[in-house]
Structures are given as structure tokens and as C-alpha cells.
Design brief:
Mean pLDDT: 86
Strand content: 5-15%
Shape: globular
CATH topology of the largest domain: Jelly Rolls
CATH class of the largest domain: Mainly Beta
Largest sheet: 5 strands, antiparallel
Strand order of the largest sheet: 1-8-3-6-9
Number of domains: 2
Distance between the termini: 14 Å
Number of strands: 9
Oligomer: single chain
Helix content: 40-55%
Structural class: alpha+beta
CATH superfamily of the largest domain: Regulatory protein AraC
Order of helices and strands: HEEEEEEEEEHHHHHHHHH
Amino acid sequence: MMKKSDFNSFSLYEFLKQQNNHSAGIPFFLADRNTYKNAHVQFPFRTFTYGLGITYSGGVDKVKIGNIDYELKAGCLTTIGPGIVCTWQSDYTAEHDTIYFTAELFNGFQNSSFLQSLDFFAHGGRHVISLTDEQMKKVAAVFSTLKELKSDSQVIPGIVHSLLMLVESFHSGLAYRARTNAISSRERIVMEFRKLVAGRYAEQKEVSFYASALHITPKYLTEVLQQELGKTAKRFIDEFVMMDAKYLLRQTSLSIQEICYLLGYEDASSFTKMFKKLIGVTPSAYRAA
């Protein structure tokens, strides 16, 4: 288990590489079910890399990305980009393949800015989707090649790029379904709302702001969120902020007052009141635990 003193500099990517004796100088890391056996990473952490994984089989594992709970079952494809707060709610014991990498992987290959155009890595994106059997076979084939050639630094960037383009084609198919109304208007509202909150939560915490941006009423937005996610729009916003607060309290040396301002609260009293209401303890108690 990680010592409390390690929280301030914790990086899941570096931690897993170190735990598995992987070269620190190589900007990618391949993980499977054995990678997490002794990790026990069940506290909020912010991602500093790109991660892409496919779950082949096994029981249901749970992960919170932002403040959305996901169940990782067989056939799930998971994508998470830098800067997102996550919490594993169980040890990841399913059969799976995952690659973690940094933008430096593509130095000398092509401009790594293309990564920023991939919405599935961004805040509020579709971080977990279900694949068809045919799609799973394609992803598994690329991972098989990655594992076979992982020591060849000249070819790895091209293989990872191919994997990303394959995943982008899956997500583009989902986007097409959305445009052709195969995805309901309520689902589209939830998707856009999540993206907006991820980008504006520190400065905008009122439901009315997001409803206006989506051209619907606050009442209708809350109805949609209640039906689709089981929580009100206000609850969603507050929980999103608290996920970031938990990360900042555990993994930085910022004072509670500094965290308060960083998250957009006018005073520490309001922040403390909301934190205790949603988390059950004060920020100070959470940090000390």
C-alpha cells in the first residue's frame, strides 16, 4: 500500500512502471491483470498520461472517472487522457490489455498534437464503450503485435497510432448514431452537459448556466440527469468538484484555503460545508486520514 508521504507526487503510470521494473526512459507501458495484483490504488489520483485498455473476460470491476461510475465487463474499451481524476473501486482482476503512454512517444514520428483531437481522451468524453466481437478481435490483434514488438522503439509509435485510429473509428460510429438519432436526445444532453461541467466547473456551479448553454430549462436538465444518471444536475456538479477536491487534498501540499480558491469557492467555510455534506468528513479530516 502507498505510504501517505507518497501521495504528493503519486503518478499511476510511474508507480506501475517502477513496481514492474519497467525502464523509466521508455514513454509507454503495457499492463495486464497481473500488473495490478499488488498495486492497491483505491484512492483518487489524477492521470498524467494517456491510457487505453480492453477487457476480455472476468468479473465486473468498477472505476470512477470524473464522477461517473463505470462497470468494466468483458468487451469494454476504456480510454482516459491526462488531467482526469479517477478512483479504482476494486482491484482490476479481469483479463485485459492496457497501454499507458505519454505524448513523447510520438516525438520524431509526427506531431503529437493529434492526440488532442481525440475526444475519447478528453474530459466528459465517452471513456468506456462496449465493443462488438469483431471490434474486440481487431483491438486484441493490435495488442498482440504491441506485446511482440514492445522492445522495438522504432515501430511502437506506428503501432500505437494505428490502435488509436482504430479506436477513433469505433467512436466515430457512435457519433454517427447520435447524429442519426439512434442515440436519444436525452443521452446527447448528458454527453454535452458532462463536457461542459468538465471544462467550467471551477467557475460555474449553477445549473442555470449549463441549462442555458444547452438551450433547455434547468428543470428539464435536472429531469434528464435524474433519469439518465440517477442524480440531479446540481448533485452532478457538486460531486465533480469534490472528486477534484479529494485529489488535491491527498496528493498536493496546497492549503485548504488554496484548494478552496482553486475550485472556485469564495471562502473556505462554503467549501468545507459542501465537502462534509457530500463526503461525510471535513477536508482536514479527509486529508489526515
